[in-house]
Design a protein that fits this description.
single chain; Rossmann fold; 42% helix; 3-stranded antiparallel β-sheet
Amino acid sequence: MSKILITGNGFDLFHHLPTKYGHFMSIMKTIEKNKYHNEVSFDELFGHDFRESFESDYDLIVENYKVENIKFDYLKIKELGELLRNNNWYKYFDKVRKIETWIDFESEIGNVLNQMSSLIRLVEMKRSRTTIFNNHDMNIYIDFSEFDFCNEGIVDGISINDKYINSRTGKFDAKRTLNELGILLNSFTIIFNMYLSHIVMQFYDNYNNTLRIPINLIDFFYSFNYTPTLESIYNKNIDVVYLHGKTNSDISLQNIVLGVDEIPNEIVSLNAFEFSKYYQKIIKKTNNNLLSIPDESTHITEEHVFYIFGHSLDKSDKEYIKHIFDFLKNDNTEASNVRIFYYDQKDNINKLKNLLSFMKKEVIIDFHASGRLDFVEISESNIEREFSKTIWKKYDEGYIM
């Protein structure tokens, strides 16, 4: 093991693929508003909401892909529209305008679960059979009523839909509600999978840019993405470990992980684990480690370079990122290092801040001072230089390059 490439959504965006949260939602809104009866062209799908909201991204797609050749299956588009109309999570996300990134998206799932947790606690505290709750009791989000278990029945509050009232106790049936929310979240995951597999993946065969990352110089590949960009644009035979699952046109084969790191205790007590990433990873068989951390008995025989490309370093993936730094700390050769690629200075600052939010500052400062951690601006020359570096290997008492 020598050179390890770890990719996040920024890797797809580097290839000008429409994989931002906003990209996805704008296309969903277009599908929701229109009816298609024949094969759908690129401009029919991307030339309206998407172009208005993401003009520069639209221009880059047109510049880097043969968009005139891209066609979408109208039957799949129609199926997507039907799923959207019946999904309360989508309706909720569509109303919450503050969501800008996939990290915000995950946080918003957490916000809904926290609201549910507050509601469960409130029901347990009240002795009466009341089914009406207001902001004096709990902090209600105005869009919470997008979920059909509650209605805006009172000013600044909610009333519980009758079908979610336990007929025996007369109280809010939290277990049933969470079960339905879990089913709807799984349905939302299927919607997202269909977007990736039936829309985004149509771009690969029409990539028109000569700029390529020299992945032939990389030994191991790990991806936080759901999309097969490495195999589709570069080499279909490389072996990529998908840490959060992978999209598939066959719904039964997709194993996308879409949830939160931790769920509130009140929800844990009702065994509603389907919202958590750790539960989904085990059920969907994506619970993979990056690599084994060396211990005192392990003798490292070669330098390891971790290239992180397109990942925000947000704390939502902190366990994986900590794992990399634990590897560096336990490397007896003190040669293994991390190279973090960034898009611009703002991105560089955000990545460093995210890293410092969960890593000890002494670790980051020491590794950076010793040259074992570096931030590298994305450019063709920098990519070529970094990936082309020679890795040393140790055999007995000698070293070879």
